[in-house]
Amino acid sequence: MTATIARKPSRPRTRRPVWEERPTPVGQTGKAVLLGLLVLSVLFPLWVILVTSLSSRETIAQAGGLVVIPKGIDTSAYDTIFAGGAVTRALWISTLVTVIGTAIALTVTVLAAYGLSRPRSLGYRWLLAYFLLPFLIYPPLVPKYLVVTGLGLKDTIWALVLPPAISVFNLVVVRGFFQGVPQELLDSARMDGANDFLTLARIVLPLSRAVIAVVGLFYAVSYWNVWFDALLFIDRNDMYPIQRVLQSYLLAGQAPHTSGGTSGVTMPPTESIKMAVVVLTVAPIVAVYPFIQRHFIKGVLIGAIKG
């Protein structure tokens, strides 16, 4: 009696589409070189900015400007920036605008996207057309300025928070994600007596962490990089966000109306001060991005494809 040996079923091979060619060693090498050059083109300017901000006057003079190879560490540029007080105050203003603005924008976007994702909502077609109209026709600048100044928001952080409180692109992405939530889950929650707000908080939002993280990053970067609205609506130097102070440093080499007290003290080179302000401007966003990187591609793709 012969014993039969059970064979494991072989995994089916994934066939390539007919239009996709088999990768060649030359093609793979070319792709690796191209990706390496792209990564280098991104990292090299950041490296130059960081090294220049930590270089002394002699090192910058020997390099003729921007420094590529470091020769020691000199933090005098950062000491001068924080001693003046303008950058510290601007960082606080930008942080406040980013936190408050992102919270308000996410709340408005989630509520609007959930209402527009439900076909039985009252007047959702007209509301969807209303939201999509500024996406196709950008509103003029003069009415925006008149509205903000007419409401008394000039020279306040609300002039930087409220005008960009909702993005149509982010609204469409979140709405597309919400449309992909199974209707059976919503119907079961309604049968259990949950209203729309409870359904959104207990069912929809836990399933939408990826897209919420991505949209939150979009809003946070937008608020942190606010410059044009600050140029229009903020005239007080003590209300400048970090981008306006960065502009002052890049144009004049110093913060606007920096307090005195530096007479007789050797100032760091202008190049190192400019690069130090750039580092302080970019560092917070760079530090936050790795924590939500795993949600980034998933959230954008799912939110844009579903619905």
Automatic annotation (TrEMBL):
<keyword id="KW-0812">Transmembrane</keyword>
<feature type="domain" description="ABC transmembrane type-1">
    <location>
        <begin position="91"/>
        <end position="292"/>
    </location>
</feature>
<feature type="transmembrane region" description="Helical">
    <location>
        <begin position="199"/>
        <end position="221"/>
    </location>
</feature>
<dbReference type="InterPro" id="IPR000515">
    <property type="entry name" value="MetI-like"/>
</dbReference>
<keyword id="KW-1133">Transmembrane helix</keyword>
<keyword id="KW-1003">Cell membrane</keyword>
<keyword id="KW-0813">Transport</keyword>
<feature type="transmembrane region" description="Helical">
    <location>
        <begin position="126"/>
        <end position="145"/>
    </location>
</feature>
<feature type="transmembrane region" description="Helical">
    <location>
        <begin position="273"/>
        <end position="292"/>
    </location>
</feature>
<feature type="region of interest" description="Disordered">
    <location>
        <begin position="1"/>
        <end position="25"/>
    </location>
</feature>
<keyword id="KW-0472">Membrane</keyword>
<feature type="transmembrane region" description="Helical">
    <location>
        <begin position="32"/>
        <end position="50"/>
    </location>
</feature>
<protein>
    <submittedName>
        <fullName>ABC transporter permease</fullName>
    </submittedName>
</protein>
<dbReference type="InterPro" id="IPR035906">
    <property type="entry name" value="MetI-like_sf"/>
</dbReference>
<dbReference type="GO" id="GO:0055085">
    <property type="term" value="P:transmembrane transport"/>
</dbReference>
<dbReference type="GO" id="GO:0005886">
    <property type="term" value="C:plasma membrane"/>
</dbReference>
<feature type="transmembrane region" description="Helical">
    <location>
        <begin position="90"/>
        <end position="114"/>
    </location>
</feature>
<feature type="transmembrane region" description="Helical">
    <location>
        <begin position="157"/>
        <end position="178"/>
    </location>
</feature>
